[in-house]
Amino acid sequence: MKTVEPATSASFSTAQTGRSVRSYCQGMLPLTAKLEPWIAELCQSTILPELAQKQGSPLNVLNTQPFERNAKALYDVAEAQGLEFDVYFARKANKCLAFVETAKNQGYGVDTASIQELQQVLDNQVPPEKIICTAAVKSEALLRLCIKSGVTIAVDHLDELMQIVILAEQLKQRADIAVRLSGFQHQGARLLSRFGFDLDEIRPLIEDLQNASPHCLQYLNLIGVHFHLDGYCQAQRVSAIQQLLPLIDELRSRDFPVRFLDIGGGFPMSYLESETEWDTFWQTHRRALLGEHRPLTYRNHGLGLTLVEGTLIGKPNCYPYYQSPVQANWLEGILTSECEAGTIADSLRKRQIQLRCEPGRSLLDGCGFTAARVEFRKQQPTGDWLIGLSMNRTQCRTSSDDFLVDPLLIPATEESLLPRTPAGISGYLVGAYCTESELLCLRKLQFPHGVGIGDLIVFPNTAGYFMHFLESRSHQFPLAQNVVYDNDTNQAELDSVETYL
C-alpha cells in the first residue's frame, strides 16, 4: 500500500469548539450510531480533513483492527463448543485488500464472488484451500481458474455441476466442490431460495450420478455441503443444519469425503446504540405515513411501507439497524440449540464435521466510514434545506431504501467565501447525480449549529457493503479512494486494490 501524506493547508477540529462530534447533526428522531473509538478520535482530529482534502470526496477510511476482533469472537464461541471451525470472509462486502491480507495473516479463509475477486486473492498468496467461490453466476473462465488453482466451488445447479465435470476432465484435474442446498422445511413452510439445489432433489441426483454417470464422479471431489439463507433468523439456520446432518451421513455412506458444513453468511449486527430509538422511529414513521405526525422522510417516503385506503401495507425495505442477538452471541445461540439427543454443536462434533461460515457485513462492523465534503446549501420554498455533498448515493447505499444511521458533521474552521447557514436548520443530504431522487439520506436531519461549505459529513460504519456494493461511475465521476488508517501510528495508506482499478 502507498502511504498517504496528509495535506496541511486546512484545519478542522471539533475539539476546538468543545462540542461532541455527534452534536452537529441528528435525525429529526435520532438514530444514534455506535462509534468505534478510532472513528470518534479521528473525527475530532485534523488528520481526517487533511486526508479528505488530499484524496478527494467522498473518501472511504478503513481500519482492520475491529475485523480481527469480530472474527476472533466467532472462533472463541466455536472453540468453547469443541468444534473445528473456520471463517471465510465474504469479500463481496468490501473490495479492499487490507481485509484479505488480514484474513491471510490470521489464518481465516476468503469467500470470493467473481473472477476478479478470486484472482486478486490468489495474487495475494492466500492458500487455495482457504478460498471458496460462491459466485451467483460463474463463467467458464471462473470455473476453470477455480479448478486449476484448487479452490473449492459452491455448486449451485446442474448446469454448473456438469460444466465443472467437463472442464475438470479437460484439465485432467479433480474439482473440489461443496453442494449448495435450499428448500428447507421450517415451521410448516419451505424456505425457498434462488440459490442451490432443492433438498428434495439432491438425493436422486446423487444416485443418478453414481448409477448412470459414474464417469462424472471421478472428476468431482465432494468435500462439503453449503447453504445460504436470506435474513437473520437463528431458528431457520437451526432447521437447515438439522436437515443437512442426515444428508451428510448418507453422502459419507456413499463414499463422498464430506468434511465441512458451511452455513453461509447473514450474521446480524447492530449499527445503533439504542433499541428504543429504533422502535420509536418506526412507530412515529408509521404515524407520519397515516397523516398523524409530520413527515420524517423526504416527501413522506414510506421506506417500504405504502398507504392504501387508510391501511399501511408492505414491510420496511431497510436493514434492521438495531438487532439482538448479534454476531458471536447469535452464533452461540445456533450451536446450543437442540438437535438429535443434544445440541447442534454436539451433532457436529460427533460427526467430526468442520463448521464453516461466510460473514461479510458483521466482520466489518466498526471497520470504516465514508466522508464527503459539503459543496452547497439551498433552502427550499418549504423551509427545508438541501445540503449538497461531493458524492452520489451509490457510494453509501445497498439495496435498502435508506441509511438509517445519523451521520456526523465535522465543521470546517478555515474561512469560507460564504457564511454558514443559520443555526437550527433542518433538511436533507443530496448527491451529485442529476435526478430528483438523488438523496443520500431520505430521513430529515437537523443541524443545530448550521452547515458551512467545506464541512465534512461522515457516514459511520459503512465498511460492510455500503461503500462498494452499488458504487457507480455514472457522469464519469471517479470512484472514492480507499485509505487504510492505523490508529496506533496515525498513518494512512491507499489500499492496494487501487492498483487493480
General description of the model:
With 501 residues, this protein is an alpha/beta fold. Helices cover 29% and strands 23% of the residues. The chain is built from 13 helices and 26 strands. The protein has helices at residues 37-43, 47-55, 65-80, 97-106, 115-123, 140-149, 158-171, 199-211, 214-217, 234-253, 275-289, 327-335, 344-351; strands at residues 2-4, 26-27, 59-62, 85-90, 109-112, 131-133, 152-155, 175-182, 184-186, 189-191, 197-198, 220-227, 260-262, 305-308, 311-314, 338-339, 342-343, 354-357, 368-379, 385-389, 408-410, 425-430, 445-447, 456-460, 481-486, 491-494. A hairpin with a 5-residue loop joins strand 19 and strand 20 (385-389). The longest helix has 20 residues, at 234-253. The chain is globular, with a radius of gyration of 25 Å. The two termini are 14 Å apart. Residues 4-13 have low confidence and may be disordered.
What's the CATH architecture of the largest domain?
Alpha-Beta Barrel
Low-pLDDT stretches:
4-13
The largest pleated sheet is described as: 11 strands, mixed
Strand content: 15-25%
Mean pLDDT over all positions: 94
The Rg value, from CA coordinates, equals: 25 Å
Coarse morphology: globular
* Class from secondary-structure proportions: alpha/beta
Distance between the termini: 14 Å
Quickly name the level 1 CATH class of the largest domain. Alpha Beta
Number of strands: 26
Helical coverage, percent range: 25-40%
CATH homologous superfamily of the largest domain? Answer: Alanine racemase
Query: What is CATH's topology name of the largest domain?
Result: TIM Barrel
Please give the domain count: 3
Number of continuous helical runs: 13
